[in-house]
Write a structure and sequence with these properties.
Helices cover 25% and strands 26% of the residues. With 416 residues, it is of the alpha+beta class. It has two domains: 7-125 and 296-415, no CATH class; 133-183 and 218-278, Elongation Factor Tu (Ef-tu), domain 3. A seven-stranded mixed β-sheet has the order 2-3-20-21-1-14-19. The chain starts with 6 loop residues before the first strand and ends with a strand.
């Protein structure tokens, strides 16, 4: 094995995961090797069809990867990502150096997502609520302002099938909170007159001192008895909601923490964990793990990169990156709303790994989280771009992005 094949990365137009894998094909990796491993790892997430296209540019031929991925969901938990990556590493028989590169890239992404979320930077722009089911009640034209204990009829929440697994364990609780979206609300005023006040003594109060359903964010919050679970349905006590009201979340009522004189603590009864909550003692939740958002192709890009590097026998101890790394500018829209470029996850990677970078040269997202993670995992030596690559270049590869920009949207790799 030739361990002195030195790779130089030139992210003058940023770097994305698919662009890196495409550029490796441009360096000479058979396209079937890269696309094959990407399609293989995709089976953990759903299925994929990955095609490498040769495109003529003013700099010569470039490679563009077109990926059609059918995924079970847009997000991926850190634990699942690690499990799938390890399975892919074993099945592809990656040698230790390249397997470690893949692991470093994934851990870099996980840490960046965790930091971005803990910083609160993702809570910008408009919020987007995802309904998990709908309410069924006898109320079609009029609904009570509070649940009526003696109400007649059947009350239940029907979760959409993809969320049914989330009901496991809820039957242990005597009461639950239903958070709904009051879709029949129409407009709002910041001062209201409570409906039970009339005449001269009527007073106006602030909207947030009332329970008016007409609010800037018309969310309903209903505490009700949990009677039974049947499949994807939760049969409850009376509800103060119209039939067909969307449900956005369900949470269990805990007698101890909510400090009520009714209900129970469900499966948390007499647990040390409940005591920690009650006493306000800081502690860790085992289930609180990072979630990789917009994760459609993260594992595909990581494995495509690792397999391509191995195929070229690149020395991972001698990677060079020309600086500064261009991150782009402007804003980008994704599931958290509109975010400035670089996005919080990218900014976290740039800071943690002290990557020399610069904004521009265009207002677009040029450095993606996966691209930044791959670059950090390469652990390159930083070299000013004006100095050029070290030594004589034997091969060049150009990986093209999907964005149509005024400058060529490509990642340049050089190998000697």
């Amino acid at each position: 094995m030739n361990i002195e094949r030195i790779l130089t990365v030139d992210p003058a137009m940023g770097m994305a995961g698919d662009m890196f894998s495409a550029a490796l094909i441009g360096l000479g990796v058979p396209a079937s090797v890269v696309t094959g491993v990407m399609e293989h790892v995709a089976r953990f997430l759903g299925s994929a069809n990955v095609q490498a296209e040769i495109v003529s540019t003013k700099e010569g031929p470039g490679v563009h990867l077109r990926t059609e991925l059918e995924m079970d969901g847009p997000h991926l938990s850190a634990s699942d990502a690690r499990t799938y990556l390890e399975a892919a590493v074993r099945e592809e028989h990656l040698s230790p150096a390249y397997a470690d590169f893949a692991r470093r890239a994934l851990e870099c992404l996980i840490a960046a997502e965790r930091e971005a979320h803990s910083s609160g930077q993702l809570d910008v722009g408009e919020l987007h609520l995802k309904p998990i089911g709908i309410v069924h009640t006898p109320y079609h034209n009029e609904a009570p302002r509070q649940p009526q204990k003696d109400a007649k009829g059947e009350f239940y929440v029907e979760l959409f099938p993809e969320f049914a697994a989330g009901l496991a364990g809820v039957e242990a609780f005597s009461h639950i909170y239903i958070i709904s979206y009051l879709h029949r609300a129409s407009g709002y005023s910041l001062t209201v007159t409570p409906p039970w006040q009339e005449g001269e003594k009527a007073r106006r109060v602030g909207l947030f001192a009332s329970r008016s359903p007409n609010r800037p964010s018309p969310l309903g919050f209903t505490l009700t008895q949990m009677r039974r679970v049947e499949g994807n349905r939760i049969y409850t006590g009376p509800l103060d909601l119209f039939d067909g009201t969307p449900v956005v979340d369900i949470k269990p009522h805990l007698r101890t923490l909510d400090e009520t004189d009714f209900g129970n603590d469900g499966w948390l009864a007499d647990s040390d964990h409940l005591r920690l909550h009650k006493e306000g003692i800081p502690h860790h939740h085992a289930s609180e793990e990072a979630v990789l958002h917009e994760a459609q192709d993260i594992l595909l890009d990581i494995m495509g990169a690792a397999k391509g590097l191995e195929s070229l026998e690149v020395s991972l101890e001698n990677v060079v990156c020309l600086t500064p790394v261009s991150v782009g500018g402007g804003e980008v829209r994704f599931s958290h709303g509109t975010l400035p470029v670089p996005t919080p996850a990218v900014a976290a990677i740039l800071k943690r790994y002290r990557i020399p970078h610069a904004t521009g040269p265009v207002d677009a997202e040029l450095l993606t989280p996966t691209g930044a993670a791959l670059l950090a995992a390469l652990r390159p030596r930083w070299r000013p771009r004006e100095m050029g690559p070290e030594g004589k270049v034997a091969q060049r590869g150009l990986g093209l992005g999907s964005k149509k920009l005024e400058l060529l949207n490509g990642l340049r790799l050089m190998l000697r």
